[in-house]
Amino acid sequence: MFSTNHQKFMEMDELSLQKVPFFFVIDFLSEKVETYTENEIEKSGLLIDFQGFSNTKTEHTLDKKVEWKSFPETLESFKNGFDKVQKNIRLGNSYLVNYTRKTKIETNLSLEEIFYHSNAKYKVFYKDFFVFFSPETFVKIVDGKILTYPMKGTIDASLENAAEILKNDKKEKAEHYTVVDLLRNDLSMVADEVKVDKFQHIDFIKTRQKDLYAMSSEISGKIKPEFEGKLGSIMQKLLPAGSILGAPKPKTLEIILDAEGYERGYYTGVCGWFDGENVDSCVMIRFIEKEGDQLYFKSGGGITHMSKLEDEYQEMKNKIYVPIH
Questions:
Q1: How far is CA 89 from CA 95, 96, 171, in A?
Q2: Would you say 208 and 322 are in contact if contact means Cβ atoms under 8 Å apart?
Q3: Rounded to an integer, what distance in angstroms lies between the CA atom of residue 194 and that of residue 188?
Q4: pLDDT at 152 (0 to 100)
Q5: Residues near 235 by Cβ (< 8 Å), separated by ≥ 6?
C-alpha cells in the first residue's frame, strides 16, 4: 500500500550515517523525498525557521493591515466526504480518520510575509509554492532516544474553563487516546522500551483570529540497534504520520484518498533538520499552498464514531488562520 521512494530514503541513511547535516522534506504519500545539505539549502530558495535551526537572516517589518478572507466549502459539500468516513467507521474499517479539506483564501500577504510574521514552532517557506506554520512535532531524536508529541484536540480558549472542558471532552479524549496508542505502536517498530512520558498536556496557541488550547502527549523510546543512525529507514517505517492519518493506517489511507477527493501533496507530510547528531522534525500542517495565482489553505481534523458533522465542519474552519499578532 505504501509505495515509497526507497532510493531517496537510502540516501537519507547514507547522509545520517556519515553525520552530514541536512534538511529533508517528505510529502504525505512519501512519493517525493527531498534532502538538502547546508550549502544546498541556500540555493534551493527554502526558508526555514525551527527552534534549533534557522536560515533566515533579515528582520522583516510588517507595515500593512492584514487582510484575510476564507471561502470554505458548503456544509453539504463537506458532508459528502464526512459521510464516506463515517460509513467506514461504522463498518469497522477504521476507528479514527483524519479528514481534511482545501479552502480558497485571499490575503494581501505574500507567502514569504506569512512565513516571516507567523508565530509558530516550525515554519518553512518553499519557493513560490507553499508556506506552513506548524505547532506539531513529528519526532525528535536525541542521543539515540526517539520522542514524539502527538497533538489531538483543540478548543477556543475564550470559553469559560476551556482547558478543563477540553481535557474532559469525551470525543476529544477518545481521539487523543487513539493517536497516543497508534504512535506508541509506530515507535515500537523502530525503538525499544517505548513509553508514554506525559499524557494529555494542554498547550496555549495564540492567533490573530482566536486563541486556542491544544492537547498533546509525549512518547519516547530507545532506537533499536538496527536503526541507529539510519534516519531514512526510520522515516520510511513511521510515515505517513499517524496523527494526520488515523488508524489502522493502510485501510484508513484508502478511506482518506476516496473521501477527500483532492491531493494533499506536501500537506501533512513531514520535514526536519538533522544536525549531524540529532533530529527535529515536524508535521506540515497549518498549510497554505499556491496554485497558479490562487491560494489554498488545507485543514481538517480527526473523525471518530462520536463526531458530529457541524462540529467537525466548524473545526475545519477554525483552523484556517494565520498566527500573526
A1: 5, 7, 14
A2: yes
A3: 6
A4: 76
A5: 9, 12, 24, 26, 270
Count of CB atoms situated within 10 Å of the CB of 293: 5
Beta bridge partners of 176: none
pTM of the full structure: 0.91
Q: Is the pLDDT of residue 155 over 90?
A: no
Alpha-carbon distance 38 to 22, whole Å?
Answer: 6
* 68 has pLDDT over 50: yes
Rounded Cα–Cα distance for residues 60 and 120 (Å): 16
pLDDT surpassing 80 at residue 311: yes
Which is nearest to 241 in space by CA: 290, 192, 302? Answer: 302
pLDDT digits (tens, 9 = 90+) for 167-183: 888 888 888 888 899 99
Q: How does residue 1 score in pLDDT terms, banded at 50, 70 and 90?
A: very low
Residue with cell 513511521: 238
* pLDDT mean over 4-14: 89
Omega before 250 cis (within 30°)? Answer: no
Residue-wise over 74-94: b if at least 16 C-beta within 10 A, else e?
eeeebbebbebbbebbeeeeb
Which of 228, 133, 239, 129 has its CA nearest to residue 183? 239
The rounded distance, in Å, linking the Cα atoms of 183 and 194 is 10
Residues 6+ apart with CB under 8 A from 116: 56, 60, 62
Q: How far apart are CA 181 and CA 265, in angstroms?
A: 26
pLDDT, mean of residues 46-69: 88
Backbone angles phi, psi at 86, to 5 degrees: -60, -40
**For 158, which DSSP code?**
T
Buried/exposed 101-113: b ≥16 CB within 10 Å, e otherwise: bbbebebebebeb
Contacts of 179 (CB under 8 A, 6+ apart): 96, 150, 152, 242, 243, 247, 302
Amino acid in the structure at residue 187: L
